[in-house]
Amino acid sequence: MSDDTGLSSSFRKVLNFFKNLLSTGFSNFNSPGLRPRRAIRVTAQTSGLRLGSLRGPAAYGSGHCPDQWLTARVTARTSGLRLGSLRGPAACGSGHCADQRLTARVTARTSGLRLGSLPGPVAYGSGHCADQRLAARVTARTSGLRLGSLRGPAAYGSGHCPDQRLAARVTARTSGLRLGSLPGPAACGSGHCPDQRLTARVTARTSGLRLGSLRGPAACGSGHCADQRLAARVTARTSGLRLGSLRGPAAPPVFLQV
């Protein structure tokens, strides 16, 4: 009997040892890398991540992550991203992202963009975009434009567009124009149009004119028309005249100051 009692007591001690070991997260050991891994694994398991995919020490919920991969992976999983698509260290939600691609990817996925289309580092929501193509793509997708039609860097909503074609395309699409008909850079709604053809086309379409009838640069509604034929045609159409009866440049009194 005494032997049986001693055996069960030893078994109980071993069992308690392992229980304490699991509950303390290896706190009895001096290795600094083991303690945070339990926190990381618990958080990962809660988020549905595979435990084997966690590398390096990381403390979750302590306000400091030596290895910020988990934070990135958890954020990515929450946003429905593939875990394999995260490269380099990334901390999301901590106010600092060493690799800002994750933030861009999360934002892009939220907007329904393809993840593979994001090149270079992009910080979204921080007020500064090193590569502003994402901002352009997100805005374009929101406006129903094709992503492939964006060329060069473009920052939308920041008050400055290095490539103003996107602003023109967005405005054109909103007005029901074909995207292929916009040549050269054009910014509409910003108070300055290097190529004023878009403004003319938008005004013409609104007035029921054919788009092909616009020649040269023309700005309507801005108080200045470099090519005043459009202003004449718009006024003529409004007055019930036939468009073919207009010859040469003509400016209605409202546009021309003599």
Describe this structure in words.
The chain is mainly alpha-helical and 258 residues long. The chain has a domain at 196-258. It has 8 helices and no strands. The protein has helices spanning 2-24, 34-46, 69-78, 101-110, 133-142, 165-174, 197-206, 229-238. The longest helix has 23 residues, at 2-24. It is rod-shaped and about 120 Å long. The relative contact order is 0.05. Mean pLDDT is 44; it is low at 23-37, 39-68, 78-103, 113-135, 145-167, 171-198, 209-228 and 237-258.
Task: Give the percentage of residues in beta strands.
Answer: under 5%
* Count of helix runs: 8
Question: So what's the overall shape?
Answer: rod-shaped
Q: Low-confidence stretches at least 5 residues in length (pLDDT < 50)? A: 23-37, 39-68, 78-103, 113-135, 145-167, 171-198, 209-228, 237-258
Largest sheet: none
- Counting DSSP E segments of at least 2 residues, the number of strands comes to 0
- State the end-to-end distance: 121 Å
Radius of gyration: 31 Å
Helix content: 25-40%
Secondary structure class reads: mainly alpha
Q: Roughly what is the average pLDDT, rounded to an integer?
A: 44
Q: What order do the SSEs take from the amino end to the carboxyl end, as H and E?
A: HHHHHHHH
Keyword list:
rod-shaped, disordered C terminus, mainly alpha, 8 helices, 258 residues
Short overview:
With 258 residues, the chain is mainly alpha-helical.
